[in-house]
Specification:
Chain lengths: 141, 127
């Protein structure tokens, strides 16, 4: 049976995702050297909005939502929506079927963009309580 | 009328939903959806690539993702205003910036892995 290029892409994509999730479930980015540190943090010492997201997903895969929240609350909030969005995209690309997706007013999307930038700035400010937003800071309380 | 499956607004005489393809003929199950107050021009699927814009902005820490988010907002803003051509243009720009972000992210990652790889090899060589 001939496998179409779309099926091949889908299999390859899903396989890559599954492999990534498995590696992330087994190795903790906080302690193992499997994942290299973020280049932005390595070069500048700053936390970007995504800093701690791998550690957060690792904690989520182990069923620790509070530890995940401490690593990166933004990731924890966005992850379900992004996952659904990606699934909807894959389904639309592969089967040509649109999954129901809410229409976001433009103002919401702009607010989200601003929130991401502000979150990135706030977690670098060494003032209490903003310093709690730095990856892992909440674990110390 | 609103599609019972995806909620998209369709012309009253439409046979199938322009967004998801579900039959809009009588006989199809009709459950009224809560009205969101947003009027989308009928028969439009203008992707805003918001998921990819957020992924590249947040998880690659890339400033190039910000224009993608701005254009994603513009797509929905123009749709809200009924400006289909404007929405399609913004959609194209959003897509472009997503690809730019992806390309830059890939280049940075490869370069970074190369640097780390060289470092590891040097470390091993010293021992």
């Amino acid at each position: 049976m001939a496998i179409s290029s779309k099926q091949w892409q889908l299999t390859a994509g899903l396989g890559t995702c599954l492999a990534g999730v498995t590696v992330l479930r087994i190795f903790d980015p906080a302690t193992s050297g499997v994942f290299p540190p973020c280049p932005v943090h390595y070069l500048t010492g700053w936390y970007c909005p995504g800093c701690g997201s791998l550690r957060a997903v690792h904690q989520l895969l182990h069923g620790n939502p509070s530890a995940a929240w401490a690593m990166n609350p933004l990731t924890v909030v966005l992850l379900p929506f992004l996952t659904y969005g990606l699934i909807a995209w894959v389904v639309a690309e592969t089967y040509g079927k649109q999954l129901p997706q809410p229409f976001l007013p433009a103002a919401w999307i702009r607010a989200l963009g601003i929130a991401i930038i502000l979150f990135g700035i706030a977690r670098n400010i060494p003032l209490h309580p903003l310093d709690l937003l730095a990856p892992g800071a909440m674990l110390r309380f | 009328m609103f599609c019972t499956q995806c909620g998209a607004s369709n012309p009253d005489n439409a046979l199938t939903c322009a967004q998801c393809g579900r039959s809009l003929q009588p006989g199809a199950v009709t459950t009224p959806l809560p009205v969101t107050g947003v009027v989308i021009p009928p028969g439009t699927t203008v992707p805003n690539y918001l998921v990819f814009a957020i992924l590249t902005t947040v998880f690659c820490c890339l400033p190039t993702g910000i224009p993608a988010i701005v254009y994603a907002a513009q797509v929905n803003g123009k749709l809200q205003a009924g400006d289909l051509a404007g929405a399609q243009l913004a959609s194209k720009n959003a897509k472009t910036w997503c690809w730019v972000s992806f390309g830059v992210g890939l280049a940075v990652t490869l370069l970074y892995m190369l640097v780390i790889g060289v470092g590891v090899i040097r470390q091993i060589g010293r021992h």
